[in-house]
UniProtKB/TrEMBL annotation, chains A, B:
<dbReference type="InterPro" id="IPR017853">
    <property type="entry name" value="GH"/>
</dbReference>
<dbReference type="GO" id="GO:0030246">
    <property type="term" value="F:carbohydrate binding"/>
</dbReference>
<feature type="domain" description="Glycosyl-hydrolase 97 C-terminal oligomerisation">
    <location>
        <begin position="599"/>
        <end position="700"/>
    </location>
</feature>
<dbReference type="InterPro" id="IPR052720">
    <property type="entry name" value="Glycosyl_hydrolase_97"/>
</dbReference>
<feature type="domain" description="Glycosyl-hydrolase 97 catalytic">
    <location>
        <begin position="307"/>
        <end position="504"/>
    </location>
</feature>
<dbReference type="Pfam" id="PF14508">
    <property type="entry name" value="GH97_N"/>
</dbReference>
<feature type="domain" description="Glycosyl-hydrolase 97 N-terminal">
    <location>
        <begin position="25"/>
        <end position="289"/>
    </location>
</feature>
<dbReference type="InterPro" id="IPR014718">
    <property type="entry name" value="GH-type_carb-bd"/>
</dbReference>
<keyword id="KW-0106">Calcium</keyword>
<dbReference type="InterPro" id="IPR029483">
    <property type="entry name" value="GH97_C"/>
</dbReference>
<dbReference type="GO" id="GO:0016787">
    <property type="term" value="F:hydrolase activity"/>
</dbReference>
<keyword id="KW-0378">Hydrolase</keyword>
<comment type="subunit">
    <text>Monomer.</text>
</comment>
<dbReference type="InterPro" id="IPR029486">
    <property type="entry name" value="GH97_N"/>
</dbReference>
<dbReference type="InterPro" id="IPR019563">
    <property type="entry name" value="GH97_catalytic"/>
</dbReference>
<dbReference type="Pfam" id="PF10566">
    <property type="entry name" value="Glyco_hydro_97"/>
</dbReference>
<protein>
    <submittedName>
        <fullName>Glycosyl hydrolase family 97</fullName>
    </submittedName>
</protein>
Amino acid sequence: MRLRLTLPFLFFLFIPVLVWSQTMKSPNGLLELGFELNQGVPTYTLTYKGKPVILPSKLGLELKNKPSLLDGFEIFELKHNNFDEIWAPVWGEESQIRNHYHEMEIHLEQPSTSRNLIIRFRLFDDGLGFRYEFPAQSNLAHFVLKEERTQFAMAGDHLAFWIAGDYDTQEYDYTESRLSEIRGLMESAITGNISQTSFSPTGVQTALMMKTDDGLYINLHEAALINYSTMHLNLDDKNMIFESWLTPDAIGDKGYLQAPGQSPWRTVIVSDDAREILASRITYNLNEPSKIKDSSWIKPMKYMGVWWEMITGKSTWHYTDDYAAIDLNSIDYSNARPNGKHGATTANVKRYIDFAAEHGFDGLLVEGWNVGWEDWFGNFKDYVFDFVTPYPDFDLVEIRQYAKSKGVEMIMHHETSASVRNYERHLDLAYQFMKDNGYNSLKSGYVGYILPIGENHYSQWIVNHYQYAIEKAADYQIMVNAHEAVRPTGVGRTWPNLIANESARGTEYQAFGGSKPNHVTILPFTRLIGGPMDYTPGIFEMDISKLNPENNSWVNSTLANQLALYVTMYSPLQMAADLPEHYEKFIDAFQFIKDVAVDWDKSWYLEAEPGKYLTIARKAKGKKEWYVGNVNGNESRLSNITFDFLEPNKSYIATIYTDAKEAHYRNNPQAYTIKRFLVSNKSKLSQFSAPGGGYAISITEADKSATKGLRKL
Amino acid sequence: MRLRLTLPFLFFLFIPVLVWSQTMKSPNGLLELGFELNQGVPTYTLTYKGKPVILPSKLGLELKNKPSLLDGFEIFELKHNNFDEIWAPVWGEESQIRNHYHEMEIHLEQPSTSRNLIIRFRLFDDGLGFRYEFPAQSNLAHFVLKEERTQFAMAGDHLAFWIAGDYDTQEYDYTESRLSEIRGLMESAITGNISQTSFSPTGVQTALMMKTDDGLYINLHEAALINYSTMHLNLDDKNMIFESWLTPDAIGDKGYLQAPGQSPWRTVIVSDDAREILASRITYNLNEPSKIKDSSWIKPMKYMGVWWEMITGKSTWHYTDDYAAIDLNSIDYSNARPNGKHGATTANVKRYIDFAAEHGFDGLLVEGWNVGWEDWFGNFKDYVFDFVTPYPDFDLVEIRQYAKSKGVEMIMHHETSASVRNYERHLDLAYQFMKDNGYNSLKSGYVGYILPIGENHYSQWIVNHYQYAIEKAADYQIMVNAHEAVRPTGVGRTWPNLIANESARGTEYQAFGGSKPNHVTILPFTRLIGGPMDYTPGIFEMDISKLNPENNSWVNSTLANQLALYVTMYSPLQMAADLPEHYEKFIDAFQFIKDVAVDWDKSWYLEAEPGKYLTIARKAKGKKEWYVGNVNGNESRLSNITFDFLEPNKSYIATIYTDAKEAHYRNNPQAYTIKRFLVSNKSKLSQFSAPGGGYAISITEADKSATKGLRKL
């Protein structure tokens, strides 16, 4: 279904009016957008069921060395459009996505400069998207942004789930506070990171999740960040007005644009039901359809990795401790003494392959396989990796053949050390090397400060790099899972080979001192709004000192919570991150990780409250299998769900992996129980979840022989 | 002949002495280097025939966030070496180069930090080279330069030929002044350029040429600029001490180094005869031998170009005037209206091919052949060119076939618009495209400010780019002639596919308002010290308004001077830059350009005085042909030379192209005479050269039939 209606448009030719206004409702009529041109300044408002979401907020852009596009405007033309279609993503939380909006296209003219600007609003049932468009014109060709000055005026001192605005990291724990408290909490919110550049005591990142005192959930983010600087939000905490704060380049400029062109979409997702925030597809809908014609090579997958042992410090990425600095042009590793702790040895990798094969995993990631890790970050080193030369103890051919014989696909790892030019120089060879050796997917990393010095992780220039790497990977039919890259903005619709990102505080921080127990109840409302996250769940051993006596970190999660993450943290790429020996200890719980799907026909958001809990049910794509995940915040809680997402008049077997009564993320994380029941779509479950806990359920159609002795839920 | 002697070395183990000194003489004994460690600070001096060249000058480096390598040193070890060899360059002013020096290697230890630094001095008969070396050590691995603090203390207020220190251009006219006058003249020395970033009122560029009141000629430059920032010189004009001033990156850092590693060589060429400065091979000798094993594909060549007509504004690089901005991703040139002035049309290119073929030129350069020139510079545009897509009126296949049928090799043009990342992204495809289409040589350009923004033309990061482009070109067997790149430092020895650079004010400025008439008497003492220059001589029509009525530029040179440049401005790549129709008007004078060689067995520097005149004779490589060039400064002059460079007891025919008596660069530049004489190695010539004038001579062995009627000189 694809429908486009252009309504008769109004046409104004430089008719100066003091105030000109226009409104538009969402398809279901619950949201209303107001646009006003007041004394030449464009503003907008948004209400939901009559409640204010965005108070009058200014729109516009400040240019460098040119008159600004902030005021002095007149209405030139207005167009209304409707749009309604259903499209099928290559992978996703559902196999069919509806894209339904009312559109208003406001053509502004700035008579004093004879320049034109279009502001395009798309109003969906679940929120608003809008962007600036710069049509081709004689008086605006190339221009430099000093700042985008888009306001989001809040109607009160909302509760917010925020991380500090930063040009070089997104890897912070979330702070939950009133908007007015951000300033006072900023210092403690900025925890240490290998690269970090904060910019304002009231600057925060998107996606920003908020809750109002009158029960609205509001999410601010952006969609289709292409050839533009990443948007942060800076709060005027007297007036509770957020304003866009773009990421600058080395000289402080915020973007280089040309007409015709446009900004990314700025999004406001809103509902009085937190579950609707999770169900929103605005971010994808505002991106372009897939540019990959044949996407048959893009396959969701579950994988293991020679990784957690390095993250915890049990083993090392690097091969030798002999050198204070190495130069790949001249080093001869055959002369180096192995440090005896190198993780990516042929024998160790084969051990993982054996385990992954035995338990039906699709892939195995190996980090630290390639030369150069001895001084890999913190040195502003240009030529840090070549991406094609294995360490002497990593027999690439033997491993390739062994993995193939076992039916496990090897996953490539490209740590760039944020030396972006070096990576681009090697990209074609590195991708070709992957294809030559049977690797079809890739984890890339951008640890440390960006080279060239002065750039940062989220400026336009580096955003363009991430995009370049994704598009070039598509040429090679390679799937990309980029870590430390800019947080996603739905670009995975257009380039579905971007199967995941990290771009937030992932599981690794549980081995770097730990994350807050309720972290995973917030991420789906923030980071995941833009796209899937390679969160790397599945940690069964919470006491990291058991892996590495020098590491006193504790994984702030119960084992059942870890299982639930495979459902609640949507990703077409899911890792079982812990060591084989830990899974072998809890092989019954491990069964859930083995069973759970990674691609879905449909999702149901059963319970949700950011920072507190969320419960999601999903149907596996093309299969009669359902999976439920519940993750819980800092306090224990009773989760109440019904199974009405199942088909009626059928009987199913549900295997429920729950926290035991005495479970607790800190004191007793491995206390879990597994029970099996018969369920139907009338069944209900009232289930305890521990602090930092949760539960996971796998549901299959009941065949008679298997149901013997099972009781009904 | 290759000889290496290591003399017995002295060994000091942390013996604290207040002053420790050491001297070393050049092989011929005329230069003496003094090194002194005075209270822990390393200093050096240099004398020539007992006259001071460098007064006591400090050595050392200031590091960022680390203790400096400036003082607190003790002598750890001293080594003396001698070296003498003769090597054969792939191309050059002579076919055999002697590399003969005495070496002193001073190992310093800084006990307070347990760090080591080596200062290596090489003393040649014609000057000094020295560099810093950072041996592998546990307390110095990766480090950042805040500044290199190498001093060059002058013994007086010398006369200098200088251009303003600048991070983004070298394209200035030279100013001739006392050192003490630099500050006062700086403002007028900084003329406009598309990209320019000056840094100090007493900052100047190298190679810097000076003359002392007691008759010494001193040249300061660097050799082997590899993975390091370009060195400028900043003058303390109270004490007449130059200090190194490295080119910073976007955040002001001056270089990222690791041990083991080294700085480039700092060079001091000195003589009491200006001709010896021109004859010096120090810069090449301090570079590594060629890394290109089979260099048979590197061929000196003479070429023409569809270029001068764009430079003068007679035609355009771009195809259409329709667009204020274009985007190569979406533009469709088939919809564009041609502006009617596009230079690189198939018909026009074929006209040049015809002319080049008729007159025996090796190659033809065509600029503006590829899409993207409509908004190519000044806009900080990232994706500005793709380097492979011709304009619709440039039929690449037809031109390729036509050129081949005529025996003319097409020369590729890659203007990068200084968008360095974009160029690197396209480099492999662009080079492969060249090979696929029969192009073996390339002119590249870096017009405008560097992208990424904040970097500049001469920082370490961008120096590394130029080097990358050269080395990758070698992989494809492509010769590179890079314009606006960093001025050369003898790297053409190591990578002889770097056949030329611009990297100074070239002939194009004669169409941008003109250059000083004596400019070409200075360049061989400055810019050419580092390597060949694609100066693009051969302009016969000095009144640019005849090409383009809107351009009132005047070429400040006589026609005879233009001929002489093919001898005096050494390059294995020489252009005949003017239009075919101008050569047809002066076809007798054009004969010299047709005849002159581009590669040499031997060169004789007959007369030389920077800013005033120079006369050079050269023997064509492998041929019994000699060519002489004289270029003259602002005043008319009588040049007196003997032909003793010819073989004895033989008779030769000399064709002499001279300024006519009434010639003058401004009033009467096209007044020339051509005469033929019989000469022998006893012949003498006393020849008038006009202001901005000169003469050129071609000499061939006399065969009886051809000498009939010729009189002896």
